[in-house]
Queue: 3 jobs
Job 1
Amino acid sequence: MTQRRVTIKQVAAEAGVSITTVSHVLNDVPGKRVHPETRTRVREAAARLGYAPNVLAQSLRTQRSNTIGLVGDEIATTPFAGKIILGAQDVALSRDAVVFVVNTGYQRDLESRGIDELLRRQVDGILYATMYHRQVELPPQLAAVPTVLINASCTTSGVPWVVPDEVSGGEDAADVLLAAGHRRLAFINDVDEIPAAFGREEGFRRRLTAAGIRDDDVRVVTAETDPAGGYEAARELLTGDKPPTGIFCFSDRVAMGVYRAAAELGLRIPDDLSVVGFDNQEFIAEGLHPGLTTIELRHYDMGAWAAEQLFERIEAPAGTRAAAPTARLRGPVIHRASVAPPPAAHEPQRRRNLA
Amino acid sequence: MTQRRVTIKQVAAEAGVSITTVSHVLNDVPGKRVHPETRTRVREAAARLGYAPNVLAQSLRTQRSNTIGLVGDEIATTPFAGKIILGAQDVALSRDAVVFVVNTGYQRDLESRGIDELLRRQVDGILYATMYHRQVELPPQLAAVPTVLINASCTTSGVPWVVPDEVSGGEDAADVLLAAGHRRLAFINDVDEIPAAFGREEGFRRRLTAAGIRDDDVRVVTAETDPAGGYEAARELLTGDKPPTGIFCFSDRVAMGVYRAAAELGLRIPDDLSVVGFDNQEFIAEGLHPGLTTIELRHYDMGAWAAEQLFERIEAPAGTRAAAPTARLRGPVIHRASVAPPPAAHEPQRRRNLA
DNA sequence: TTGTAAGCGTTATCAG
DNA sequence: CTGATAACGCTTACAA
């Protein structure tokens, strides 16, 4: 089936030179002067035969495989994750590299086996990604290879990482609502105590305080991050006294539940209630009606940034260990149709906020 | 950074034998009798040093890399696709193989480059997947390697493929609605003329006819497969005369639009209107309220089936080319809460259908 | 039972 | 300017 691919030897024969020469010209080895004529002769022979070097052989010799691994807990099984793969793949391919992906599903043994399998294939480096932003402990085997974390940070020094900028996400959500004139607000936060929960709340509160919103005009409740959780939380929020006119949701899925609660209570979005989500999860943010204004999570960019860093470290001369760079990516707010001025907004007040 | 990994030579030295012997025992080469004592000596040496063979070197020698490629148009960027990766990866890993993934984004040149890059790395075979079920023309380079198609079929003979069983999907949807007692039905089909559209309609109609539903009691309309499309179609369907009491949607996203239309028209699901979707797309089917009854697309299984077939072909002795197997996977119906008896159902009629 | 050596397809060193 | 040849780390005839 697999007819043997053409090798450098065949090219050499075809061109009537030695394989050394072929290697020289095809790799443009610096300092090796080759007669222009031989050069073209070799080039033509290679083209004629459709020669492409065997990367395995190259790797064995050069100790560089031009191959990286992407291992993650749910890297393949969540809608976001794919974007990470894509970002990583795009920068990899731009350098003629390819990426292995290993989905561990939180199984320690699978992770370990997967990484070993990659190492045995001499990957040049590994991208280690988590589905939700958190702190991780690096698998010990990764100490041996250049590694970059995606959507996670770790205490091991010398390992670059990139995560979403949760705080500014919270700030931006607050700003969107404030700019529309809202003065009574709520945040339906995640029940889990994770960086995203802390960060977003911090940013959200900070901006409200700065805008002079009184503490008892901002409510922060927690819920499961799914439609059911959002529904429950929103019902409680909206049926209490002094209900918020604007709700910031920990995720678009939560917002989905808020939409339902609002509909049941006869509240129209955005006329009676404004809502902003988080994630910009395709099919949800876009599919809801009216379209959900939300903060985007830049998974593609995280994947790309990480791959970029990884290659940088791979290519850096052995000793040259620069301090590990880290990045917090601020996601843009995606304006759709779920935010409007509050129903009873006082003109002067609104104008002040817009200024 | 990357301290050199331990090689077979070191193990040989540690055990005081030749590398040949090490290879023999570690690979359990049949027909090679090695003294039990040396055997354990080697094993222990290997373990002590933490030796793991370099797969690149092995591959170069054996012409088998234990590595496969998964290339697809949107293999990493859609919620379904991840499951395909996972299915493929799981069977790969169970054979100590790893998978490269390449997302082509429908760009021919990217696809070509990606595949070349894989071939240069001597992948043993390639899984070629498409996001939506369709016919494809195989990239010419794939003629050289074992290949299996996922979610796609092709005319090239000798290439195994696996696709969803669209027809039975349509049948099952019809059955669910019929069993609940519905007699006036509609199908919101995809505007695009693709296998899924033909197949599902065929199955759906067949069962209705078999159940004695009159032709003018079943309406089939087409729409864009997104919430907006579903909304428009549903509005038209539901505001016409003799509106259907049960709607089968081409996709869960379409169903999402149907939910909205129903809500606007004051129709309660499932009391006034039953709906069944297609895909069982996580976060949508589950997140809608009431939960959407839908037909599952078995992406994980398609990935796994394909990988299984691929390895079978890779391992088959050169000449042994069995006819290419193909499979249509029938997805289970996921019962949730969007289907109930029609509002004005006549008892006798319903009972008859349940029988 | 164990070891020598050739070879997988390259790159890199060193002579010519 | 060009070409032998040794390595990269491993498997596998073939010898001993």
Note: Chain B has three domains: 8-53, 67-159+299-330, 166-292+336-354.
Job 2
Amino acid sequence: MSITSKQLAELAGVSRGTVDRALNHRGGVRPSVQQRIEELARKYNYRPNRAGKALVMRDTLNIGIIINSVGNPFFDEVKRGLEAAKADYSDFSINLNWHEEKGYDVERQLKQIEDISEMSGTIITPINHPDIAERLNHIIQGKKHPVITLNNDINNCARFAYVGCNYFQSGQTAGQIMGLLTNGNARILAVTGSKKVLGHNQRLEGFIGVLKSDYPKTRIAGIIENNDDDDRSAYEVARAIAGDSSIDALYFCAGGVTGGVYAAVSQCRKKPVIVTCDLTEGIQKLIREGLVQATVDQQPYWQGYTSMKVLLDYLLFHVVPESDLMYARNEIRVKYNI
Amino acid sequence: MSITSKQLAELAGVSRGTVDRALNHRGGVRPSVQQRIEELARKYNYRPNRAGKALVMRDTLNIGIIINSVGNPFFDEVKRGLEAAKADYSDFSINLNWHEEKGYDVERQLKQIEDISEMSGTIITPINHPDIAERLNHIIQGKKHPVITLNNDINNCARFAYVGCNYFQSGQTAGQIMGLLTNGNARILAVTGSKKVLGHNQRLEGFIGVLKSDYPKTRIAGIIENNDDDDRSAYEVARAIAGDSSIDALYFCAGGVTGGVYAAVSQCRKKPVIVTCDLTEGIQKLIREGLVQATVDQQPYWQGYTSMKVLLDYLLFHVVPESDLMYARNEIRVKYNI
DNA sequence: TTGTATGCGTTATCAA
DNA sequence: TTGATAACGCATACAA
């Protein structure tokens, strides 16, 4: 409970209206008065009362949401988090404009960005492509329209903040788990979604880096792509193990896990050690069956909740987060702490 | 944004005052009118506007906090969480009455409970003792004064909710990690704080249960107490290993970790596998040094934040949580995801 | 350039 | 038993 604008007005010897104009930089205030009010506000640590603000702000806030969630169960929890944060601001009238999409098509995402240009703010899982960055920068135009990148970040873009996975650390964590579980002695097949996806590459980098430095006796037998697809995953994994029967461990750093795991289990001579990412229904099942030993989760609910909260706090109360990089924890899940 | 009390008054053909009296059960409303208003409120899903409420509720809320935090670094994060939740309700005037204590003295805690009897609500890490339960029940008197148990629960007490660790699951998780790290082959020394503390016993139960069912080749070499004390821990661990040189793994399910770990490392013939609980500064250091392989954290910040939020949501908005048991996640931390 | 009046949704007080 | 009114802190339209 800080000082109120009314008390501030008394202290400054002006009316509440003038205080409002001064502190919200609406102009039309004599410079000397402006300065006096700002000084007093600082001195008495004036913070506008949110309840008063909520009561008077009756225009609805339109938020654009662009996510590649179709066919991707990972986003179910993200969406729950987004809705939960919105519910925390039920005193305000907030409208979410959903644009859900499958896959990564630059042209389609450009069109969606066009659609949300008139909104007050945006949350997006961007494709890391120069055209997307340019279009976003055009909409942002000096923070008038804040954009939060969610789960994927983008280069050369004036986005307000990134909320999502620290992919490099995720890979490191997986690498260490793999080293611990195999006693530093394994021939590992790494299965990535696509060598074109930045996050997947960063995970691989972190994974391989830790194994090299902390578990130098391990070997990477190969790195294969599965395009996040189960059938493709089964085929490629089976082929790789057929070509190198010494493989006794696998790291999946993206989707298409189930197909690959079953292929590996049936092909390997002895039960392989398998580490994956995320905690989808499919992976939970594999963990319960004992086929996957551990997975590195990235708090999807937290990602949704936090991205929405950061955006609304800025739009409603001009709150700027301490850092523009907000990383989810990389949580290790095993059978008993799912 | 739901319907307002004013609109409700119009629909019911009465004044706002009557609606307020009816919905808040202040009495003095004709039964037929009371019923009509309640029906309309349900039909139109009336939810009082929190901002309006905040603006008018100007009496300060006194919250009692009784925690055994002195000399226990685990509670630093808990306290940060408590403060953070309070800050989320900055529109209200809230006063925290701290009672911090060292150790578990029933008489002292009884006195502290007396001190907070006049407050609006309480958050406490109770000693699980009949006298404490009775004194708390006396203060609670039919939910007029809600009490949240934090980190420790208590039997036969009408506390409003428990926010804290699921100790049994914590032990299970540690057991599984131990099994995975030792390939199901280890002679384990279990170090507990006290066999009188319920949480410690539940952790041991979970730990031993998982090892028995999932890793039957492991053996528990012994269970010793260290009273959460480093010196005692060093002495007892050294003695146990001197008496059984086959010990090659340790599980610490409470405090006094640092002393015990150094003793174990210097006594064991080869480097032991060590799993601990929590993520204090001391344990972080041990993990970085590679002496502790993994620890099972219990989200202390979340515990503080959630307990305060649940209490305030009830006192201010009559929000009742879905369950009266709110468990922290048992998170596995290793060197790279600290 | 500055001041005043009004209203947002709720609770509390006083009058009827 | 019920109604009318003021007050909370803020933004805004309008008046000066």
Note: The domain at 5-47 of chain B is CATH 1.10.260.40 (434 Repressor (Amino-terminal Domain)).
Job 3
Amino acid sequence: MKNNDINKKTPNNHPMPFTRIEVVVLSVIDNCLQVLLAKRTDAPYAGKWALPGGVVRIDLDSSLEASAQRVVAERLGMTIPNMEQLCAVGGPKRDPRADWALSIVFKALMRVEGVTANAGKRIEALAWRSVAEAIEDRTLAFDHAELIERAVNTTRSQIDSLVIPPGLLDEQFTLGDLQAICEQVLGKKLDKSSFRRKLAIRNVVEPIGGAMRGGAFRPAQLYRLNETYEHKG
Amino acid sequence: MKNNDINKKTPNNHPMPFTRIEVVVLSVIDNCLQVLLAKRTDAPYAGKWALPGGVVRIDLDSSLEASAQRVVAERLGMTIPNMEQLCAVGGPKRDPRADWALSIVFKALMRVEGVTANAGKRIEALAWRSVAEAIEDRTLAFDHAELIERAVNTTRSQIDSLVIPPGLLDEQFTLGDLQAICEQVLGKKLDKSSFRRKLAIRNVVEPIGGAMRGGAFRPAQLYRLNETYEHKG
DNA sequence: CCAAAAGTGTTGTGACTACACCCATGT
DNA sequence: ACATGGGTGTAGTCACAACACTTTTGG
């Protein structure tokens, strides 16, 4: 048993897992679905890229969701609303620092414009990386490539059923914007007419009266997410 | 800080959550969806009903799934295949034994015929209870009523999309059996013809050549789950 | 014959894909 | 005018719920 595990005791005197939060932050940037990775300063995997994460602090956190928010604030210097719990993974080989490591994994979607994540505690640098690359990358720290893949699959299922993960979009957007982003997340083209009919049937979005976006060509109606739309069984 | 938390340390000297597994075991018994509850012998909530559960043992368990299997074996004296991870919940007020309690919650479906769960360690008795009652019951220990509700909702979604949770059925069954069980889980009647068409389209089941079940009336074809059926996008 | 459960057909609705087509605008 | 992206319309297919119907058995 490693020396740093000696004192981990429970009410029944059993040592407890080393319990962490990991966060998969996804965004569509440059027409490509990307994931936010942090370059580690400390061992293990010093200098390698990993998901931003941190230890659950029972003295600071009122829930797992609060833990995730604190970790994001410390590591990225920002807040990310609408994080969802993805899964929990645990086992003896996951992290060389501990005999047994447990991670609660969260995922979040965000748009990146204007927001700059700043490398915080124990992070040398932050970078966005295409998910396709990240999932294939054998040099990613811990089991993080697998966690990214799970987050992407879950997000694709949500988009498939037109549950638009909040945070992915600006408050105002055109239907073209929305379709382009969904296509990037799914990694395939969608039919414009079909896509719009689905949006209409399920009341996913509502037009913003009078607001248009002018560009080089024909101006487009601006929409917002309809927060109260009903899911179809 | 409670005395039993003094020694819970991590590699960074932070105390760790009191980490447990809870298991929601569901079954259709007497034409009613029921959940397996354990009467607690020890404080807290001694004498109250709770989900069977236990501490994660880093010296014994090779993964969270292995933890769940061990807990089920110790508490129920049996094995339950096909447990799925449901969610993780954590916070300072969940369990009076610890400053901060984390539970990884699993769910499983089973058929109950022939199998007898035997009350194991720290359990006075086991009983099946209708989920409708259990969810309403304000005397259930911890936050377990809420966990049961989440397990039931997840299971209903699976049945809705005809992902039949394994373990729910005998190896051989008639389409009438299958429909009746699905109806009990969902809490509503299904149309026979529609139900069968969906099963056929998605190749969920396959007939067992020649095998029939004779009863009081017309015999019925026996089926088995087709393990390799394809999910529809 | 009758009750009960197994199993099949039929019809209308609505969502989906694929594709064609019109509209408004800046250059 | 025309390229570009915004936006609409149509036709065929498929899955669906609802409901009626036929079949096979024991009594």
Note: Residues 1-9 of chain B have pLDDT under 50 and may be disordered.
